[in-house]
Specification:
Number of strands: 13
Radius of gyration: 21 Å
Strand content: 25-35%
Oligomer: single chain
Shape: elongated
Distance between the termini: 12 Å
Strand order of the largest sheet: 1-9-12-5-6
Structural class: alpha+beta
Largest sheet: 5 strands, mixed
Amino acid sequence: MSKETRVVATLPVHELRMVEGAESDGTMLVGYGAVFGKRSQDLGGFTEIIEPAAFNRSLSEGGDVLCCVNHDVNLLLGRSASDTLRLSVDDVGLRYEIDMPDTTAGRDAMALAKRGDLFGSSFTFSVAPSGERWTEDDEGRKTRFLSEVRLYELGPVVSPAYLDTTVASRSMGEFVEETAAAVVESTPEDVDGGTSREDAAPVARRPMVRK
């Protein structure tokens, strides 16, 4: 499974915040790596919506997830294997809490968070088999729904530049090809006295699940 990256911009409802005097007797950074049910910005010809159960299996299986600044493993803030990163799901999305380390990366991240200089959060994932479906409305707008993904890494970012949509764009291309093929197969051939392709009723678009 190929990895992808998405950014969640800082908004009041899921802003990054510092929590003093946490369970670790230090400082926690709290934020949302992903938000459910919200349409993303245009990702290059399509938008994306994360469904509420998308991370359930990944979290239940307990794989090690890293928390880094700007996806840089040299700027590690915590990891789920050591319980310095704690992940949970609520009505908003994928929530994370980090016990901030007393390191250069940790102190810098805390200072940036307090100043409001962090753009938001970002996460790295791959889509499980049959974990996505595509739809297209009557105006040709394509939407990708993510129903199951594998989470690898997340954390705060200072720039919205991390929008790696190469894998999704390839998947969208396959969806477009399959939709076009379905239309061709459903359209009657030109025959004498018959209905031409141009006169045939349009075929209703339907969701398709990538296998």
